[in-house]
Amino acid sequence: MEQKNTKAEILDAALDLFAINGYESTSMSQIAKAVGVRKASIYSHFENKSEILKNVVQMVLDGYNMNSIFANASWDDSEFTKDKSGMNADDYAKLVKGHIRYIIHDPYVRKGRMLLVIEQFRNEELSQLQTKMNYEDIMKYFTGMINYLIKQDILVDANSEIMAAQFCLPITTWINLCDREPDRENEILELIENHIKKFFEVYHS
Amino acid sequence: MEQKNTKAEILDAALDLFAINGYESTSMSQIAKAVGVRKASIYSHFENKSEILKNVVQMVLDGYNMNSIFANASWDDSEFTKDKSGMNADDYAKLVKGHIRYIIHDPYVRKGRMLLVIEQFRNEELSQLQTKMNYEDIMKYFTGMINYLIKQDILVDANSEIMAAQFCLPITTWINLCDREPDRENEILELIENHIKKFFEVYHS
DNA sequence: GTCTATAGACGGATAGAC
DNA sequence: GTCTATCCGTCTATAGAC
Hints:
Two copies of one chain form a homodimer.
Chain A: H1 2-21, H2 28-35, H3 39-42, H4 49-67, H5 69-72, H6 78-81, H7 89-105, H8 107-119, H9 124-151, H10 160-180, H11 185-202
Chain A binds a DNA duplex (18 and 18 nucleotides) through helix 1 and helix 3.
């Protein structure tokens, strides 16, 4: 039982360090120091350093697949949309702002995102994961949302993929800025607020 | 004269490697191998490794300050706008697409951008540079452009900062995607094309 | 499972021949 | 200015006591 705990602590410490310095620039000693053990002890839990990365990525992926609305929700699914029939533009804005607050603040989501940003040009697997998690899945979610809002006559009928891009890509950029400069969160949240309001205004049906 | 050449080759090789692997994960041996000399020879040109980074960053910065439209242009400057009086929305779209093609393809601009992305959470100086070069300056440029287009009655009068964000932030995201997956350039350029067209459509005066 | 000790490779950096 | 040779520190990883 001690074992499980230390193993998890190693993964947490590794994610902390990988998210800022990247995988290669993080040493076993740094991880060990953060956990409070000697570096040799880490090898009781992981065969080698790359196994730590593998498990860290798996941990991030599991959290993503279990909790992320972008990984699971489908606007074609009546189960997902059944409680949304009476909602207006403001309600959808609130819904989205709730998701944004979550992914800005959840430490695993945030560090996972930072890790992928740092490793995106070096590690082929993480490069693909970066495109999937922080572009494709988000674009898919919001394209679905916008198609749904067009059907509901809340938004005007136009190229939903471009509309989704115009809606979500400024937000993902602001979230990255917030990862880099957390002190600017309030300023950024206000920009996002105004952006969403304006979007629903210009594309209102 | 040999000296100047080798020094420049070292900086080029270093930028190549830093842009993919980051500063700390790049070794003097790697740089030396890329240049075709022994690693000890590098110390004839630079005191230590951090001096290489310093010079690489200076090189990127010099190129930026000399060539980047975002660093220099001001839409309040009559010198800059004097040949633009007869232009319509399509002309401005073409102008912007020209800038985009340049910053996607210019190798120094591209590698500098990638380096800043990789180092943004670790190196305070590069973090600030990332915010300035790949957010603030771009936002400033397009806010200026949109204010100008509002004055010219090409765009409707609204919150120009939000409009600028909706215009340029999807594009910066696509450029990052293009840095990561250069094979998708055509697909991405088409998205940018449609995005710009749609933007001028919905905000047309 | 964690520790100390250490192996062996590689990191940045220097000395000195040419 | 570039080379070989080398120093010393840190890296990943292993061996073996407890």
